[in-house]
Amino acid sequence: MSVDDFLGGSFMEDGGDDEDMPADADSDEEDEEDEEDMDDDQSFASVDDLEDDDEGEAHLHELAKLAEKDPEFFKYLQQNDKELLDFNPDAMDEDEDEDDGGNDEDETETMPVLTKNILQKWQKAILEQRSLRALRKLLIAFRSAVHMNEEDQPVAWSIDSSTVYNKVVTTSLKYTPVVLDHHCPCKILADGRFKGPTQTPKWKTLQKLILSYFHNVMHLLTQLTDTELLVMALEETAKLVPYVTSSRKAVKVYLKTCLDLWSSAEDDVRIAAFLSVRKLASSTDSSLLDMALKNTYLTLVRACKSTSAHSLPAINLMKNSASELYTIDHSNAYQHAFGYIRQLAILLRNSMKVKSKESYKQVYNWQYIHCIDFWALVLARACDRQTEAERGSESALRPLIYPLVQVSLGAARLIPNARSYPYHLHLARSLLHLTQRTSTYIPLAPTLVPMLVTPLTSSHSKGASLRPLDFETTLRVPQQYLKTRIYAEGVVDEAAFVLAEYLASAPVHASVAFPEVTVPIVAALRHAVKAAQKGRGRGKEAAVVKTLVERVEESAKWVEERRRGVSFAPGKLGEVERWESDVKVEETPLGKYVRVQRKAREKRRKLMEKARGGEEEILEE
Fold it and tell me: Tens digit of pLDDT for each residue in 203-230?
């Protein structure tokens, strides 16, 4: 089994991707298997019977209050359909059936052409009366727009204007949620979750129409290339999610479409697609959350198979957004997180047992690194000390910190050679983020100190005209970089910064035992600096490490000064915790040093991005 298949989670279940659906999916699909193929000429005619002749009068006064009730929709009307806000109820055409080209039995070979006047009449009926008859006509026209260039799809209208096409698409997307919310409102609970509409006769009649429209929107999303229209389509479709959750087929298509966009589109579209997935996961039906969690993780794993300077920002966006999804329900997320972290442990165990080049590749790859980092983000977000204090209880995901740390440290020890230092740095950064957010002590020094000692004590450092290595997008160092000054300087700079960040984190620096914790670290680094001073060509690396050692020693003295006046013994844990909570790490010598280093690295990062952007501009010219 390949790493891709293994991380795909197939070992956790007997079935393949189709079994991502709940067990009752088949029974739900039987009633809707032909919903996309309904004939426009005959479908949804029963919707017209739902119209109440007196309903229009009851809703005329609502238009004056539209800005209050639905400011977003009102703003859209002001910007795009301002003339609809100034309507005359007496001017409505009573014979609306003449507009419904799809119901004309005497229709000739010439297909009726959809015009702006016809579309505007439907808009007015929907806006003034929340007319279901007008909505039905609009959605039939929308289907014609979506399938207008497909020979095998029967359509009711001909659209020969790009303006009308855009208008019918945007009108359908914007107006449909408004009409549904009026006739079949959904319930939003206090915790943000939603319940579907009540099963009234009106909703049962509308359901197939909405499911058909929903599938047409999904088809449209695969065709659109305009970013602004894509974002609007995703935002408006998310409002329809409560109306389609009863159809597992529709949910599966929706989730797949959104996740495809989330993993491949531009940033604005990715964010809108993720918000749509989060909307689906906010259902009171826990099976939908399970489906969203599993498929989101699988999509992330497939998307991060390779990493470059151009793909890394998108992968980071995916990891950060997916980690938010996993913190909606900690108890539910625990089941998934436990299984997937166990997968990582199994891969590591197999590599440690076999100890072959092929088995090492099961762990030394970008998917493994990004999975470790993703679960560190999830646990850091869920088990954040401040968040837990506000919630009043520990997260259900906290017990998973220990196994994730063990897996990460085990992976770092698997191949402890110089070519693997970038891999070790990736793991160290993930664990550093975890320890900073959760206030959990993680022993990172044994992983970081060798990266500083080896370049300083090595006697074979040669010069080379190579470009500086980008440690963010490097997993294993190319052979030509080994024993070169450019690589030694890069490793020392990166490892020294990560070690400084680690020692300045609250679980380490705020500890009353900080001076004792740093004794072996300082001793090893001082010995390496002395060895470097005897050699040649290692002055820059030695200076970086020497500065770090000096700041650590100053901070150790700072802590010793603060704890001189304590009157409690180490066994008084309550007193110890109170003393540690009063320590302001940012005021210590090491804390100030780290703050300066962060600013310098951020400035350098922006310069590199600017330079990379300049290179792209030159290439475009």
Answer: 888 888 999 999 999 999 998 888 999 9
d(CA 134, CA 140): 10
Quote the pLDDT of residue 398: 95
Q: Contact, 445 vs 499, CB < 8 A?
A: yes
- Is 434 within the bounds of a domain? no
User: What's the distance, Cα to Cα, between the start and end of the chain in Å?
Assistant: 46
User: Rounded distance, CA 256 to CA 288, Å?
Assistant: 13
Return the pLDDT at 304. 92
Q: What is the pLDDT of residues 305-352, one digit of tens each?
A: 988 888 999 999 999 999 999 999 999 999 999 999 999 999 999 999
For residue 569, give its domain range: 444-593
**What tokens were used for 250?**
């529709």
Q: How many domains does the chain have?
A: 2
The residue from 167, 183, 199 where one domain ends is 183
pTM: 0.84
Helices (H), 439-538: 445-457, 485-503, 506-509, 514-517, 519-534
CA distances from 284 to 73, 288, 293, 355, 419 (A): 26, 8, 15, 47, 49
Residue 198 burial by CB count (10 A; 0-12/13-18/19+): exposed, middle or buried?
exposed
For residue 488, tell me if it sits in a domain: yes
The label of the residue with tokens 């909606």 reads 328
Over residues 250-287, the pLDDT tens digits come to 999 999 999 999 999 999 999 999 999 999 999 988 99
Tell me the per-residue pLDDT of 482-526, one tens digit each, with 9 for 90 and over.
888 889 899 999 999 999 999 999 999 999 899 999 999 999 999
Cα-based distances in Å from 17 to 14, 285, 294, 298, 299: 10, 20, 10, 10, 12
Point out the domain boundary residue: 131, 154, 183. Answer: 183
Query: Do the beta carbons of residue 401 and residue 379 sit within 8 Å?
Result: yes
- Do 111 and 101 contact (CB within 8 A), yes or no? yes
- Do the domain assignments include residue 309? no
Alpha carbon distance 263, 311 (integer Å): 11
Helix axis angle, 132-146 to 201-221, nearest 10°: 20
pLDDT surpasses 50 at 241 = yes
Tokens of 299: 């999509």
For residue 320, being part of any structural domain is answered with no
Q: Which residues in 36-47 are b (16+ Cβ under 10 Å) and which e? A: bebebbebbeeb
29 pLDDT more than 90: no
